[in-house]
Amino acid sequence: MSMASSSSDEDARYVPSPIKKHKMGKAISEEVRIRIVNMYKTIIMNEPSISVRQIRKQISETLGVGERSIQTIITTYKETNTVAAPKQTRKKKSFRDVFNEFSKNAVRRHVHTIWFRREIPTVDKIHQAVSADDSLPSISRTNLFHLLKDLDFRYSKRSRNSAMTEKIEIVVWRRIYLENIQKYREKVRHIYFLDETWVNAGDCTSKTWVDTTVRSHRDAFLKGLSTGAVNPSGKGKRLIVLHIGSEDGFLPGGLLCFESKKNTSDYHDEMNGNT
User: Fold this and answer.
1) What are the distances in angstroms from CA 220 to CA 53, 179, 216, 274?
2) φ and ψ at 193, to 5 degrees?
3) pLDDT of amino acid 177
4) What pTM was estimated for this model as a whole?
5) What is the number of alpha carbons within 13 Å of residue 143 lying toward its C-beta?
6) Structural contact between residues 231 and 166, judged by C-beta atoms closer than 8 angstroms
7) The predicted structure's pLDDT at residue 107
8) Is residue 182 part of a domain?
9) Which pLDDT belongs to residue 2?
10) Which residue numbers in the chain have pLDDT < 50?
């Protein structure tokens, strides 16, 4: 009984480990290719009548390489009498590798140049400007979109909240206004608000590219950049609407609405004392 037990333990000890299969898509090393060719030669020498299909199957089970790959390696060896090394796949450079800091800064300035012309920068306009610049690498429209994202540009809804990029005098006027309003409220005075707006015959895009790296008007000035797209004050034919109201609502008879007569880009040209 003890001898049988010892024999079974010995058999279990020498059980061969399973063959590790070659990972699909991974290049077969030159060492493995040589082993495949050597096994092919050995099998042919020992069993001349064996079929090619059986050879492929036997080598595949031994080395864990696919039969199709084995057939390709053997065929290449028969034709060239050499074992070809695996081709080194050349990694294609990404646009992020091609565009250095200088090139990225040039792209940023192209965007701000469009803003300086008081135009809305679109991907097509930016791509046209970048493509026309011989000092910059070529880039596709799709990759340019991703590059703008990398440069902290955001395609967002247009907003008239430009407090971060306003001039100093505008900020001062606002502070004076807030101080006066606070005084009137302390005196419990009834405050009326007068404002005007316009209704355009047409419309403009509600979203545009925004450079989030520009923090203030001074920051843009020091960098030689713009503060972004200028908010349109009006264009083409329009209606001008004025009204006055308070916390109690609009003042009866306070509505003034008329069609613009002047063909100017700013409806404020028609705002005067008579209006």
Assistant:
1) 73, 29, 6, 39
2) -115, 130
3) 92
4) 0.40
5) 15
6) no
7) 93
8) no
9) 45
10) 1-7, 12, 14, 234
Instruction: For residue 166, tell me if it sits in a domain.
Output: no
Report the sign of the C-alpha dihedral through residues 166, 167, 170, 175, in that order: positive
pLDDT tens-digit series, residues 74-129: 888 888 888 876 666 667 788 888 899 999 999 999 999 988 888 888 899 999 99
Q: What is the pLDDT of residue 4?
A: 45
Kindly state whether residue 165 falls inside one of the protein's structural domains: no
Check whether residue 197 and residue 266 sit in a common domain.
yes
Domain that holds residue 223: 191-270
Is the same domain home to 67 and 39? yes
The first and second tokens of residue 39, run together, are 């096994």
Q: Which whole-number Å values give the CA distances from 127 to 27, 99, 111, 148, in the listed order?
A: 38, 14, 10, 11
Q: What is the DSSP string of 179-232?
A: HHHHHHHHTTPPP-EEEEEEEESS---SEEEEETT--SHHHHHHHT----PPPP
> Is 132 part of a structural domain of the chain?
yes
Boundary-marking domain end, from 136, 151, 166:
151
CB-based contact 74:37 (threshold 8 Å): yes
List phi, psi (to 5°) of 232: -65, 135
